[in-house]
Structure formats: C-alpha cells, structure tokens
Design goal:
This protein has a six-stranded mixed beta sheet with strand order 6-7-8-3-9-10, sandwiched between helices. A four-stranded antiparallel beta sheet has the order 2-1-4-5, covered by helices on one side. A four-stranded antiparallel beta sheet has the order 12-13-11-14. α11 packs antiparallel against α12. β1 and β2 form a beta hairpin. By secondary structure, the protein is of the alpha/beta class. It contains twelve helices and 14 strands. The chain folds into two domains: 240 residues, Rossmann fold (3-Layer(aba) Sandwich), CATH 3.40.50.300; 94 residues, 2-Layer Sandwich (Alpha-Beta Plaits). Helix content is 36%, strand content 29%. The structure holds adenosine-5'-triphosphate (ATP). Adenosine-5'-triphosphate (ATP) binds next to β2 and α1.
Amino acid sequence: MIDLEGIYQTYPGPQGPVEALRGIDLRIAAGEVFGIIGRSGAGKSSLVRTINWLNRPSQGTVTVAGRSLGDLSDAQLREARRDIGMIFQHFNLLASRTVYDNVALPLELAHWSADRIRARVEPLLELVGLSAFRDRYPAQLSGGQKQRVGIARALASQPKVLLSDEATSALDPETTRSILALLRDINRELGLTIVLITHQMQVIKQVADRVAVIDGGRIVECGPVLEVFSRPQHATTRSLIEDVVPQSLPEAVLARVQAQLQQSPDASARLLRLVFAGAQGEQALLSDVIRRFNLDLNILHGQVDEVQGQPFGSLSVLARGDAGAVAQAVAQWRQAGVGVEELSHV
Ligand SMILES: Nc1ncnc2c1ncn2[C@@H]1O[C@H](COP(=O)(O)OP(=O)(O)OP(=O)(O)O)[C@@H](O)[C@H]1O
C-alpha cells in the first residue's frame, strides 16, 4: 500500500543543511496499523509528511496505492491525496464551524451536494460516537471529542490510508486509550491502513501491528511489535521500551539484593531477567524449573502484560541452587524460547 524508497530530506539551516531523513526504505502493507516511534527531532514528522507529499523529499520515491507521488501533476496529486487522510496532535478544527460542518468541509470543497454530504457525514458521526454533538462548536468539546471530529473529517473522503501525527499526544491516558481503540475498530471495520507516529511506546503497544524505530533520520529497527518488544536490538529501542517494559532492575532493588548476599554469600546466585512472549507466557516457566532443578527463585521485579492479545512479560529473578542447576534452568528456558539475560554479577 505504501512504499518508501531511498528517502532523504535535507532542510536549509542557519548553520548549514540539516539532514532530517537519511535513507529511509519502508514498505507498509494494506490493512496494517504501522507505528513509527522516535525521540523528538528523530525525523518522524518529516517522514510521515512525505507519505502525502506535504514534504517533498530531497531524494527518493513514495508510492501510495500504486501511484508514485513524485510523478503526478498538481491535479493528480490532489486526487491522490483523497486516498490519504490525516489527523493531528492539535486537531486542526475550524473554530467557527460546528462538528457537522467540520466533518463536511472536505466534501464541500469537493463540491458535493448537501444531500450527499449528509448521507456521508451522519454515519461518520455515528462511527466516532458524536451524533449527539453535531451542532456543537470545537470550543464546547473535550480533547478526545475534538480528535473524534478530526478522525471523522479525515475519513470523509473515504481514504485508503490514515496518517496520524502524534494524534494522542495532547490527550490524557484514558482518552488516549479510547481514541486508539477507535482507530483499531476503524482499521478492522473499514480495512484502512493506518500509519501513526508517536514518541510514546504505550501507543505502539496498544494499537500497532508492526513498528519502526527512527533515530537520527534512519530506521534503526523494524518488525512486529511483539518481536521488537521481546528482543529489542538497538539502544534507542530499549530505552523507548523502558516506558512499558522494565529493561533493567531499579537501583534500590539491586542494592537490597547485594546487601542480602553480602550477609549470606552464595556462589551459585545469579541475577537474571526473563522475557517471554506469546505461547511461552502460558507455560509453567518458573514452577517447572524450580521442581526439576531444585532451584530457589526470588522474583524481584517485573511486569506481565498483553500485546496484541498475547501475553508478554519480563521478570527479574534471583536464582540459586546446587552446582550447575542455574545453568541448566537457563538452558531449559532458552530452549523454550524465553529470553534470558544476566543483569549483573552479584
Ligand atoms: N522546515 C524545517 N527547516 C529546517 N529544519 C527542520 C525543518 N523541519 C524539521 N527540521 C529539523 O529536522 C529534524 C527532524 O525534525 P522532525 O520534525 O521531522 O522530527 P520529529 O521526530 O517529528 O520531532 P518532534 O517529535 O519534536 O516533532 C530536526 O532536527 C528538525 O530541527
């Protein structure tokens, strides 16, 4: 559905050119919810804006729904952009128009008749849960309701792709969850391809199928969300994931364990972090090794969660046992597909 090849974006700057995008290749399939995450200045906005040609890249090609945007005339580009809806962090609603009229705007601009507009807008207001608010003005709405108007407006021209530029960044966590659930429903019901850029891993966790991590204008990691969460390869990914899955042991917990072991030393003790995802989360991972290898396992820190309906978690444990027992337990976990890393020597 979306194909980016060799995208470079250079902006002029007071201290010389700024290279915002440095060779991006990305393929997003029809019907996917695809997340792009990165820190401030990583190049997220520059990237998402090349997908509707609001940013013309310095180099590279963008193909959306079979059309190479760089090859189109202005009229063809206007036509192609109807396939690409967009929602924004600050909603971009017109204050002087009601909810209904904001959603109707793109259709008015396309010279639709009032009857046709009504037939399109009313079901959209229903879809986003705002039928009762149709005559209100943006100033009379909450942030979440404003974003629902933004979503309905973006869907008015029946796009194939919806781009979301930090659409939940200005919302509280609960409203964020409800907007993301709405986007997921729309993706399922309408088969819409959704590309969302965000700096929040929570957003990726709740809604994306695949994620690309962008850093310094390059994609440093890309894959299915569950895979990237369980085996992050790049330091930037790890630190972004820390928000939703602890990647290390809090200093205070580590200090407590070290103090305990100083009082009663144990040469077999190892501090391990286990990461499990999907089917592994349903197995008796701990009790099995405890029984089989006669291990002592203290759970020190961790979290069990769900990503895309699959169990996913990380547990930090202190493992102790007879000579070789901990190593055998580690081997068994690894064989079962559980990620095991040694946190530090204690
Ligand atoms: N129009 C512009 N002119 C000059 N430099 C720009 C322009 N737009 C972006 N940049 C620079 O390009 C780099 C990438 O910016 P971009 O807005 O794409 O990042 P971002 O990841 O979306 O950041 P944020 O999350 O803070 O919005 C930054 O160094 C930024 O300062």
